[in-house]
Specification:
This protein has helices at residues 29-32, 36-39, 62-72, 77-105, and strands spanning 10-12, 59-61. The protein is mainly α. The radius of gyration is 18 Å and the shape is extended.
């Protein structure tokens, strides 16, 4: 199996600022989930209308998100990216027998 990773993608943001889960906010899906189908109905949802501005809206580029995490939050994005790759590899390894079976049967 060969894995190809595209190093730019899409980052989805929740429309409500995150707070640790408690009884009062447990049902606030716009705080705890980043699904577009859920957040697009929020009054706070911002659609980015200009692809050249990747720092606007609740859908942003992965490159912007990694840059933001590195510069403003001091996250070691190389380590984060390595962890993401590790999760992808382990997920594909766990699904490999099924993928091979499906591939051969087609």
């Amino acid at each position: 199996m060969r894995i190809f990773l595209y190093e730019d993608g899409l980052t989805r943001l929740a429309t409500e600022p995150y707070e640790k889960v408690n009884e009062d906010n447990l049902q606030d899906m716009c705080m705890h989930l980043t699904n577009y189908a859920i957040n697009k109905h929020s009054e706070q949802f911002v659609q980015n209308e200009d692809a050249d501005k990747d720092n606007v809206g609740h859908k942003r580029s992965l490159k912007y998100a990694l840059k933001y995490l590195s510069q403003r939050r001091k996250v070691k994005v190389e380590k984060l990216w390595d962890d993401i790759k590790d999760i992808i590899i382990k997920t594909l390894i766990s699904a490999q027998p099924w993928v091979c079976h499906t591939y051969r049967s087609c």
